[in-house]
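Figure 2 data, in text form.
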Amino acid sequence: MEPSLRKVIEEIKEIEGVKKVSVVSRTGIPVNGDTYQAQETFAAMSAIILGAAETAASTLGTVKKVIISLDSGDMLLLLPAGRRGILVLLTEKDVSGKLDYFREKLKNLI
């Protein structure tokens, strides 16, 4: 299972504008991918942010993504990846439209 997950992450990194790709669990544990400074905190906060967005929007619809704009001009994208995972990307632009195929693959790997 692990090599397949790593392969999907590497394929996502080939998308133009993608700088880093990580997969974290809904419980905030790093699963695989690129690391960040304070990795444990980063993973936990990513799960909390997506969970909070889903809770806030629960009566309005399903959350497809959370975009965090950074002062560097980059974006941090948080996307649900099945019931147990979150796909986290550091990108130069919103590439979420190119990720449906990969998110579907991740559902079976996480």
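Caption note: Residues 2-107 form a domain with the Beta-Lactamase fold (CATH 3.30.450.30).
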